[in-house]
Model the fold of this input.
Amino acid sequence: MPNLTFPVVPLLAQTNREFWLTTWASPFFLVGLGILGGLILLGLFVVLFKGLSRIPVWEQLSHRHNPAGHVVAGILTALMALGAWQIVQQQGFTGPAEGLEKILVFLSVLLLSAIIGWALVFCAGRKSADTLLSTLTEGASSVLAFVALVVMVIGLLAGFAFRDPMSALTSIPRLFETGTQEVQLTIPGLDANVNPDEAPLVPNQLEFDSALLTAVRLTTNRTIVLGDAPRSSDFVAAPRRLQADEELSWMRKDGQIPPIPMGADHILYIQNREVDDATVSVSLTTTPPVPESMTILQTAAIVLLVGLALLLQQAVAPRASAVALATVKNELGQPLFLVLTILGTFLIVLFVFLSFYTFGEDIKLLKECGIVVIMLLAAFQGIWSASSSISEEIDGRTALTVLSKPIERRSFVIGKFLGIFWVVTLLFVILGTIELAAVTYKPIYEARENSLDMPTWQDCHREMVATLPGLALGLMQATVLSSISVALATRLPQLANIAVCFGIYIVGHLATAIVSGATEGFAIVKFVAQLVSTIIPILEHFQMQAAIDAGSPITISLLCGTLIYCLLYVLLSMFLALLLFEDRDLA
Done:
């Protein structure tokens, strides 16, 4: 494929260094491509659902009460989960809790695969297929689509500032072809009567792409000599001698001569200078031209899963979806959502230009403060919406009017929670997008303020990606608090609901300290501490401050474990809400 490039806008480039706008805009080009890819995939699924709805057998399976449909959906889910698991486990799991990590990650992969599996079956019904477009263009879907389109347009326009945009696209298939390759080579030992200098150079074929090779690590248990030709007189580069148990490391960025041949044949000649056989371990690390292209796939997957979740919700629970749609429209029409959005935007922008006096660590404070502000605003939105929407409708007899229609009580409660969840998600998407833009710009601002070297767009992209897990954990925490508020709203008035949720928020962040502090106390104190930590969610699980301060990334196993923990508490809260609302006198 020819190396196609787009011209860089003169305004965005300087002669010897990147202009700051070029550096800031480049990461959003990958995000824009990911959103475009996700929308295209979602459109293909809509066309697929339309086509499957024309097949009588498949249309029969899409009936919600047909057990065969659930069996087929379960089979599709299992097949996709196994395929996705083969890709995920390539990253490897290490540590004392390796088994538990694998279980948590597999459960999360199974859950995400279930969205696609059940959507393939139940979104292909005649009624569901006829409402696909309307589902994606009203309520929360319309706002999500608008935000996605705005970010996509901005990202695609940023492509003019991206150096060689086609390299980002061509790197996508190479993401699955590159990585770390471990090769074990055995070199026969030397005959006792042969001079070590006359030992043969054994050829060893290595399979790798020279253009993508970024690191080499070589270890041996015997004294060996590395060469690039079968005879010493033909050596192009100077040979390298390694003693037993010595390690040789090379990285392309260091600019040193590689220890292995980089020609077309990739034959490494090794001379064993000892009597015993030599075991040589070669680790080859290859990376695509633009490894950040993984952001394209991740963004596309998120867009696709969110779109399919909305469609599946409408297909499986149409009555609850109707309640959710009414709740979303009502909450978006209230001034609180707009006020919280403006307040969050103002605070995030303020944090960018506010000096925290942390000696070069302001980017960490920006992440922490931004994530906490978004989580608190979203949690307040969810708690306020649950307490006002459910409590006021019960007290004002509006719930009685709604339930007089063919809507069951469980559909009413679940629909309310779904509507509130999508409102919280909307607030997170809007403010989270602004937070990512702020985090991407912060290294540039710090460099310009302190007269430092301008960071690369890869540095800005790295900061942006490192913020995403914190936003995901914040959304989970706000969801848990909103689900608890929905359960309490079936019995408590608005003010009492907010007060109890505030107390749960405080105790939930102190649960670990309460349990650890009660270990040396009386038995009754230990029992109460354990009871509180069991009933009330431990909200410290959703915090990322420690990881940000230490500069440690959030692992996928931690995210998956927190997701399972969040879902368990949401299910428990919904069970409690249904139990409390079932015998509630609405008259």
Notes: The chain has a mean pLDDT of 84. Residues 178-286 form a domain with the Jelly Rolls fold (CATH 2.60.120.10). The CA atoms of residues 104 and 561 lie 5 Å apart. The beta strands are 179-187, 202-205, 213-220, 224-227, 240-242, 247-251, 267-272, 278-286.
